[in-house]
């Protein structure tokens, strides 16, 4: 696609080949928003167990030229794939390269094949019973003889490739015309009650974030239940200094207690916060050399969503996230508005533990001064109910992707260019960080 010398920015995502696609976009001169579109569509091909066109979720994004942070909500009604129109809205407002360039890598991998990653191979093995009970779903990924591909083997998604071709050529046709009629018929045959009018009328929304001020920094959280929990925790632990003032051995208990109070304030009447499905969603974080930043989290509701396929579209229908899983959509982004630079960004997946995990990594970097890799490796805790706390390493708690610049992300052409920035993908999972 091209080549840009010097520092490009970085990408951290839950699937390695999608992360490489994002880096290629940055290398071609695209910005973080371009890369976010390409990474999302690539993940629907290379890790369809946790990412699909029917995913619902939110991104928190910082546009350096616009000098503002906002959230993009693409959580559509059941049966309506809101993500394609959400990605188009993101690109239309902030993108730099052509739309076709952002969709084509995913379309090519779906049509000509891709090497199955460790994460996708393990998802296929874990979902063997689901695939056995849903032959239409199994056929999307099966190789010769109906066998599921193993790690390192080649797989393709021809039906999805055709749908991605529609999105690449004319994204509006996805929600109108002949494709719309075909998709709705297929989705309804699979048990959805989606309608043509619901598809045509769906519009993603740009929203105000939840903001918490801490010294010269403002941390922005997605306007979701998970984002509200994380914001309340950040207010108490960072803005009010409780984490900094606590002894190291007291911090895990402090974090769990603060989480319990925040959840009670956001979700009334909740007496228990179960762990939820660990592989029910995905996330990525991207920043470019101009400090444009995107942190996205999205979910199919559970692994392989509903396991039902909408006709010949290759689209697996999602199930609405319920209960504690809804807390996983909680991207976080910290900037200094005086200099309009990004300092920290993270997004995660894995159910209810995600907000506390994100807050912990933010505290360990921006408050305790740890390198990002060490902060991500810090053992996490999660409040379940009164007297019950889950801890690591017994139970992995959340999967995060994160970007951290201790001095702020500054363009290479600036008077004082960026000295140290780190981008990391959680070692608890099978993603990749690249820069």
Description of the molecule:
The protein has 435 residues and is α+β, with helices and mostly antiparallel strands. It has one domain: 4-Layer Sandwich (Glutamine Phosphoribosylpyrophosphate, subunit 1, domain 1). It has helices at 16-27, 32-46, 83-94, 99-112, 118-126, 128-133, 135-141, 158-169, 177-189, 196-201, 225-239, 242-245, 251-266, 354-367, 372-377, and strands at residues 9-13, 56-63, 68-73, 114-115, 154-155, 205-207, 210-214, 217-221, 281-288, 293-299, 332-336, 341-349, 381-385, 388-391, 399-404, 422-425, 432-434. Strands 6-3-2-10-9-1-17 form a seven-stranded antiparallel beta sheet, covered by helices on one side. It has a six-stranded antiparallel beta sheet with strand order 7-8-11-12-15-16. The protein has a two-stranded antiparallel ribbon with strand order 4-5.
List its salient traits:
20% strand, alpha+beta, 15 helices, 17 strands, Glutamine Phosphoribosylpyrophosphate, subunit 1, domain 1, 37% helix, 435 residues, 7-stranded antiparallel β-sheet, 6-stranded antiparallel β-sheet
Q: Can you give me a brief rundown of this structure?
A:
With 435 residues, the protein is α+β, with helices and mostly antiparallel strands. It is built from 15 helices and 17 strands.
Shape descriptor: globular
CATH superfamily heading: Gamma-glutamyltranspeptidase, small (S) subunit
Runs in which pLDDT lies below 50 for 5 or more consecutive residues are: none
Q: Give the C-level CATH assignment.
A: Alpha Beta
Number of strands: 17
Helical residue percent? 25-40%
Structural class: alpha+beta
Supply the number of structural domains: 1
Figure out the total of helices: 15
Share of residues in strands: 15-25%
N-to-C terminal Cα separation, in Å? 16 Å
